[in-house]
Design a protein that fits this description.
The protein is α+β, with helices and mostly antiparallel strands. The protein is built from six helices and 15 strands. It folds into three domains: 3-55, Roll (Structural Genomics Hypothetical 15.5 Kd Protein In mrcA-pckA Intergenic Region, Chain A), CATH 3.10.290; 60-101 and 108-127 and 213-241, Alpha-Beta Plaits; 130-208, Alpha-L RNA-binding motif (Alpha-Beta Plaits, 2-Layer Sandwich), CATH 3.30.70.1560. The chain has helices at 3-9, 15-23, 116-123, 143-151, 188-195, 226-236; strands spanning 27-29, 32-33, 48-50, 53-55, 63-68, 97-98, 107-113, 131-138, 154-155, 158-159, 164-171, 174-181, 200-208, 211-212, 221-223. A hairpin with a 2-residue loop joins strand 9 and strand 10 (158-159). The two termini are 21 Å apart. 26% of the residues are buried. GO terms for molecular function: RNA binding; rRNA pseudouridine synthase activity. This is Pseudouridine synthase. Belongs to the pseudouridine synthase RsuA family.
Length: 241
């Protein structure tokens, strides 16, 4: 990697400004001053300093959208040795972590990234990022049941926040509900539905904010576009560094 590119990616300065620092003799590599523009360094091996201060390369931020199948855990490690969502990211070299969790039996949209700031904003209830689920439930909820889900349900850890709830279809003693929540409690959808007398048979997350599973099959993933990442930053009030 060229030295000026290394300095730019490390956040020291723009590429042009980095070239000026090199020309001015303010940059050292392994203790030696470097003024050549074409000088190459090996990240992780060479020691780069600017004005006597060590400069380390920032890990590149990456963002992936995964269609999580049921039967996978949303953790980087599992003491029980069950399949992990990380195992599905074939070819991804960076160390990434799930943004929130989907439980073992739940399928659907899961984001994975190494961007800690964005992860916090997407998962903290304070920022109210909507997550949409489809829940196949036992029985057919009536108007009162739907109203309870919409206004909030009392669980063992307190009342849930208001939710958007739609009855998509009902037949043969089962119903498909669409629920949009803005908080992220553990197993919240399952507990809400059980609390109104309609336990979940199957659960799938279909959206996070504007992101959907379009074009993906269970177990497949894609990288977010630059525009999608910028949209998430605006949505959560983050400034790009």
């Amino acid at each position: 990697m060229r030295l000026q590119k290394y300095l730019a990616q490390a956040g020291v300065a723009s590429r042009r400004r980095a070239e000026e620092l090199i020309r001015a003799g303010r940059v050292k590599v392994n203790g030696e001053t470097v003024i050549a523009m074409g000088f190459k360094v090996e990240p992780g091996r060479d020691v780069v300093e600017v004005d006597g201060k060590k400069v380390e390369l920032r890990p590149q931020k990456v963002y992936y959208l995964l269609y999580k199948p049921a039967g996978y855990v949303s953790t980087a490690r599992d003491p029980q040795g069950r399949p992990k969502v990380i195992d599905l990211l074939h070819g991804v070299k960076e160390r990434v972590y799930p943004v929130g969790r989907l439980d073992y039996a739940t399928e659907g949209l899961l984001l994975l990234t190494n961007d800690g700031d964005l992860t916090l904003r997407l998962t903290h209830p304070r920022y109210g990022v909507p997550k949409t689920y489809e829940a196949l439930v036992e029985g057919i909820p009536d108007v009162q049941d739907l109203c309870r889900l919409t206004k909030g349900v009392k669980l063992e850890d307190g009342w849930t926040s208001p939710a958007e709830v739609k009855l998509l279809w009902a037949r043969r003693g089962k119903a498909l509900l669409e629920l949009t929540l803005r908080e992220g409690r553990k197993r919240e959808v399952r507990r809400m539905c059980a609390a109104v007398g309609h336990p979940v048979i199957k659960l799938k997350r279909t959206k996070i904010a504007f992101l959907t599973l379009e074009g993906l099959k269970p177990g497949e993933y894609r990288e977010l576009t630059k525009e999608e990442v910028e949209h998430l930053y605006r949505l959560t009030g983050l400034k790009e560094s």
